[in-house]
Amino acid sequence: MKKLGYIFLLLIGVLGAQAQEDIMRKYAADIDQAEMKEILTILSSDALEGRETGERGQKMAAAFIADYFQRLGLQPVVPTEKGMSYYQKFELENSNPGSTYLKVKDASFKNGKEVLYYGSADLSAPISGSSIFVGAGSDEDFASIKSEGKIVVIDGSASFFQQWRELINKGYENGASLVVIIGKDTDEAFGNIVSQYGGYFMESRLGFKKEDPKNKGAFLVGPSTAATLLGSTQEKMNKAVADKKLSKIKGGSVEYRTSRNVEMVGTENVLGFLEGTDKKDEIVIITAHYDHIGKNGEEVNNGADDDGSGTTAVLKMAKAFVKAKADGHGPRRSILFMTVTGEEKGLLGSEYYTKNPIFPLEQTVVDLNIDMVGRTDEAHEDNREFVYLVGSDKLSSELHELSEKANDTFTKLSIDYTYNDENHPDRIYYRSDHWNFAKNNIPVIFYFNGTHDDYHKPTDTVDKIEFDLLQKRAQLVFYTAWVISNRDERLVVDKPTSESVGNH
Fold first, then answer.
1. What is the pLDDT of residue 2?
2. Closest CA to 29 of 363, 472, 452
3. Could you give the C-alpha distances from 184 to 138, 164, 221, in angstroms and in order?
4. What's 457's domain CATH number?
5. Between the chain's N and C termini, which has fewer beta carbons within 10 Å?
6. Cβ within 8 Å of residue 408, ≥6 positions away
7. Helix or strand or coil: residue 213?
8. Do the strands 253-257 and 127-133 form a parallel or antiparallel pair, or are they unpaired?
9. Do 302 and 234 share a structural domain?
């Protein structure tokens, strides 16, 4: 009889698990391709003008998402003076170079033309100072001259961006009032740098308001410009380096100015909240960024895959979970559906949330982040039912195992972990909104389809979306979120980073 009783209990357990799987499949089926296409067609339409952060199109997308959340019955949870809102609003600083130059007597070297300014200092008036040459900027070079309060000119022609930053820091550590870096060993080579990177240095920057910068940045110059700044010649500079007598280059008087034209831009994350049952104080977050890169002249960068696809997946998952709750199958843990702004400008929306969380980060169980899940990349043309997963094993072994099991049980996609390597040259682990959660020791999974020829181009349009893949990938996220939301124990963070680098 005892054996029969054991078999009966085992059978009940199997049948219970099967019933739970059937329930999950029922609501996953509500993530249908037809409405996905309707939603994504709106989000990636020309009318939304590429959803540039802070611009009209982004605001229109935010209103569409908030209205969708409201119609579902998700709760607004952002406190405002007028009550709870779906919008988590914040301001960013949009700045672009103003009057920025180096000047020696009547010779003026303008930013973006003869020189490049690398920094964000905003000086109200020009400053004058004495220049001095410190060779390649080694400790020995700095020890051989007095750099305190001087405009130091460093030969960085054997280096490039990363090494230039190190030289800049060293210059200010040695008391420089300004750092000038010789970027290349010939004027022609430096001219190529200006042509190639000038647009990047001169474009506007959108970011959080900065207090006084740690240093004034640096000017990058060609060798003949450097010689003029030092009141010398290239030949004399080369001889001073060869003879290890840098003090022979006496320097001269230089006037400089760096300025920024600044305006404040308002933007917003859009949050919809589904309250859980017995574990409602623990929060599962599902994210996607809904901003994109705006327009190229009159051409709209529609951003259907990047990241209209992820945003669409979040909205459809929200609808499926809401329906499950209405039928008595709501999640035990609460779920925050969050579409974030400013990802294309440097993960700004998710950074703002993690520094100003609506729910304490200590109560946040996981972030499942979706960015580009509607296409097939070149590497998978012969195996299109795939998805790249990033981060699942970084902080929680349980999360990785749970994710694998969800896929094996339900979606059976081919999971590719190519980009999961933190040292992969594309550094995908650090390039979408999950990173702001991961650096706070919150387990994450990032879902991604890889890049393609239409990435960040006006040709990233809805007609190229493979909706069967978008559906299946969204369903994988849904199944994973369902299991995390309903399991007895919270995910264990068994591989935390040595130190949480965000702000709790």
1. 55
2. 472
3. 17, 11, 8
4. 3.40.630.10
5. N
6. none
7. coil
8. antiparallel
9. no
**C-beta separation of 296 from 460 below 8 A:** no
Q: Considering the domain boundaries, does residue 244 fall inside one?
A: yes
What's the CATH number where 239 sits?
A: 3.50.30.30
Q: For residue range 80-138, what is the model confidence (pLDDT) as tens digits? A: 999 999 999 999 999 888 999 999 998 999 999 999 998 888 888 999 999 999 999 99
430/456 same-domain check: yes
Residue 200's pLDDT is 79
> Strand pairing of 116-118 and 218-221?
antiparallel
Enclosing domain of residue 316 = 25-94+264-486
CA atoms within 13 A on the CB side of 374: 29
Q: Which residues contact 431 (CB under 8 A, 6 or more apart)?
A: 347
Q: What is the pLDDT of residue 214?
A: 53
Give me the residues of the chain with pLDDT under 70, please. Answer: 1-16, 161-162, 211-215, 498-504
Using alpha carbons, select from 164, 97, 104 the residue that is nearest to residue 128: 104
pTM summary value? 0.84
List pLDDT tens digits, range 344-365. 999 999 999 999 999 999 999 9
Q: If we measure between CA atoms, which residue out of 318, 307, 364 comes closest to residue 341?
A: 307
Token duo for residue 425: 């040259």
Burial of 62 (0-12, 13-18, 19+ CB in 10 A): buried
Residue reference for tokens 């009057």: 99
